[in-house]
Amino acid sequence: MRFNKFLVLFSIISFMMFLGSSSSFAKKPLKIGSFLAVTGPASFLGDPELKTLQMYIEEINAKGGVDGHKIEFVHYDTKGKAKEAKNFVNRLIKKDRVDVIIGGTTSGNTLAVIDIVQRAKVPFISLAGSIKIVEPVKKWVFKTPHTDKMAAQKIFEDMKKRGITKIALITGNGGFDKSGRAQCLALAPKYGIKIVADEQYNNSDTDMTTQLTKIRATDAQAILNFGFGKAPAIVAKNAKQLGIKLPIYESHGVASKKFIELAGDAANGIRLPAAALIVADQLPDTDPQKSVLLSYKKKFEAKYGPVSTFGGHAYDALFIVVNAVKRAGVIDRAKIRDEIEKTKGFVGTGGVFNMSPTDHLGLGLDAFKMIEIQNGKWKLLY
User: Fold this and answer.
1) Which among 211, 245, 274 is the end of a domain?
2) pLDDT tens sequence across 73-102
3) Count: domains in the chain
4) What does the DSSP assignment read for 316-334?
5) Which structural domain, as residue segments, surrounds residue 310?
6) Does residue 5 lie within any of the structural domains?
7) How many CA atoms lie within 13 A of 268 on its CB side?
């Protein structure tokens, strides 16, 4: 009897020891942190970014993680405020001890935290547009969206094709807007384009007729509005109300169905450079991005509704990290950073990424498509 009790006790102890030893084989989790503007003025950018990250992280974990490393995801909502961005990034680094950070919905939020991630030596992939994020190159900072410089170049190329040589520039007061304005002023002369008006507004303004009335009095042949959020839609509507017939260009900051909804009929005829995602079904079958884009679009829309290029930026960032971790073979900040920098031939929603020590974006101008809004829908021009 005592012998049987001993066997039972021995079996229990052995089983517990087995459980303890087997748990030691569990791989270290990959901790990804994010700070996004899920609510507030930039929510139409941050909301699809967060949904994209959550959707794919859930899917990756369901399949066993990244080479056995389950992803632990920590997210904070900045509401688009730079001060909150700083607080949350410090928390992600010091308290949550994340291995990688994906976020910075807006350029202002991203630029506010660059010094923090640089000092902490944490790989960071931004989802914002300003070229200042990656030029000059910062060792620990990368980004996935096309830059404001690229947007200005694509727009000016199109204007040149149409014989437009004089334009009116109107921009907001956000970080993205200001950076875009600077790029437009610097690049216009190189394309033989003269800026005959340079108007500005606050992103919280609800009427831009004063600025547009001044523009109407010039000899501008087109209007270029560099901004994001609700303001560009107000510019478009006010221009129509004033009877301004000039072609209007926008930046990739409005590449969301929300812009068309807000601008209504005033959106028709507007041109902008954008990632191929919003015109995925219009791409030729030979385009290497098409299958990736349609797959993401189908998955996102089945769960959340209309896709936007902003969620696509989060998709690109996440899988650039995932692939870097696979190549690194270990959860180590420095090694992951090195592998992110070695990203080559990654087919994402923004284009085919080829990063290097001198290029922490890795996209060429050909990754941008020129789009026109026709009858409330996106139309691929080239």
Assistant:
1) 274
2) 999 999 999 999 999 999 999 999 999 999
3) 2
4) HHHHHHHHHHHHH-S--HH
5) 30-146+288-363
6) no
7) 6
Same domain as 97, residue 155? no
Q: How far is CA 125 from the centre of its chain?
A: 9
Same domain, 329 and 241: no
- How far apart (Å, rounded) are the C-alpha atoms in residues 294 and 287? 12
Cα gap 99→34, rounded to integer Å: 11
Residue with tokens 């149409």: 162
C-alpha span between 102 and 180 (Å, rounded): 22
Give the DSSP letter string of 165-195: -EEEEEE-SSHHHHHHHHHHHHHGGGGT-EE
- Check whether residue 211 and residue 248 sit in a common domain: yes
- At a CB cut-off of 8 Å and minimum separation 6, what does 14 contact? none
pTM: 0.88
**161 Cβ contact list (under 8 Å, min separation 6):** none
Q: 184 and 140 share a domain? A: no
Answer whether residue 281 is part of any domain.
no
> What is the Cα 212 distance to its own chain's centre?
30
User: Is 346 among the domain residues?
Assistant: yes
Q: For residue 315, what is the domain's CATH number? A: 3.40.50.2300
Q: How far apart are the first and last CA of the chain?
A: 85
pLDDT, tens only, 297-337: 999 999 999 999 999 999 999 999 999 999 999 999 999 99
294 three-class SS? helix
Dihedral angle sign, alpha carbons of residues 322, 328, 330, 332: negative
- 148: closest CA among 163, 133, 167, 168? 133
Residues 101, 127: one domain?
Answer: yes
CA pair distance 101, 36, nearest whole angstrom: 11
The average confidence (pLDDT) of the chain is 94
Which tokens hold the place of 227?
């901004």
Question: 14, exposed or middle or buried, with CB in 10 Å at 0-12, 13-18, 19+?
Answer: exposed
